[in-house]
Records
---
Amino acid sequence: MDRIRHNQLVLYQFNSLRYRQEISHAIFTRRGGVSKPPYDSLNVGSTVGDDVDRVKANQQIMSGFFGVDSDSVCTTWQVHGSHVICAHRKAPDDNLPRADGIITNEPHLPLVMRFADCIPLVLYDPVQHVIGLAHAGWRGTVAGIGQATVRKMSKAYGVRPRDIIAGIGPGIGPCCYEVGPEVVLQVRATYLDYRDLVIPPPNGNGHGSHLDLWRANRLALEAVGVRQIETANLCTACLTDEFYSHRAESGKTGRFGVMIMLNN
């Protein structure tokens, strides 16, 4: 990934997508906004306790980087599942669809989601000119949100998975993501090669295992035929100076935004 400074903003872009003129995308950090601690400073999450006016100002700062108004973006109420929607226009703020994946072939319709440890999945098919964005926490990963997004792109727009360029963005890494035995059991039930994803605890009792969500999502995308995958390998829990981390900050923190848009 490339780290980019733009005025006060700090953001990241995937190398595989950055120089494609037909799309714009950005993984924003927590820098460059107006929120006060513990939400400092570019918090775009409106349900975490931050001042509503500051959140709206941050959303406009983020959208302004794309040259669009924050009122034009399409987002969802994220529920840690595997439902994916096709976006054709912005949904009313008081009636957001409950989904963890959004796809579209509509130009100038920005797709936005919010993160603080869960994994952003950014997808683009340059052949059919379709974009997708997904939110993959451990529940969504086990439920197959990455695969569901790819399948929805195929069904709705004729996308071939081998044409998709995928980015696995910053999220909590295996270095920091300790999970309980109930999570390990669900991962084991989903992945045949789960041993590559779970780092067992020294005492072997299932407590203190670490989960590799980056690799889990890569394997899921590969399983449905995606071959062009770039992984950020940036751990949000290690990098709280730049990213929000629900785990590392004990739940009292903001959400960083991820945005992708077709330019034409």
---
Amino acid sequence: MLLNNFTKGVPEAGCDEAGRGCLAGPVFAAAVILPEDFSNELLNDSKILTEKQRFQLRPLIEKEAISWAVASYDNHEIDEVNILNASIFSMHRALKKLSVRPEHLIIDGNRFKPYDKIPYTTIIKGDGKYLSIAAASVLAKTYRDDYMIALHEKYPEYGWNQNKGYPTAFHRNAIQTYGITPFHRRSFKLFDGQLSFEL
């Protein structure tokens, strides 16, 4: 059973990201403030939910949340600041878009940078422990999936409707065959034996 709040009695935002390990596309992040009495039997870490369950939960989260926001860092920004910073900064962008200022943040993982002097706690595997982080993981994942499915229409050779930009054998083979797109992360190892790209 997932817990409601880490800190009781204050508006608390859960934050998570999606797409950190991908070879192409942005990293997405979400921030969600849920009511303290929120409950949902299905809501859990987005990685253990089916795609259908995630898309079923999204409108419910958006309707029930006190405030929610989704933001991203694109592949060029990722190449500039590295993927860890891009993940954190995309969370900052999501937090900035919230209509209610949280008084505490809970972050999935063990790394974060302070945002707007709001106290925070990092929680390893937090998306399987706290409802607001799980809700953020669902929003980040579904909005990123939508983005990659739309991008697939322009670049169908890479199978992004299926792999969403992750380093599957199909995706790596497509890179070997067709080269890279403007949406690939040049700072990532895209080829076997790759040294670096001309930037």
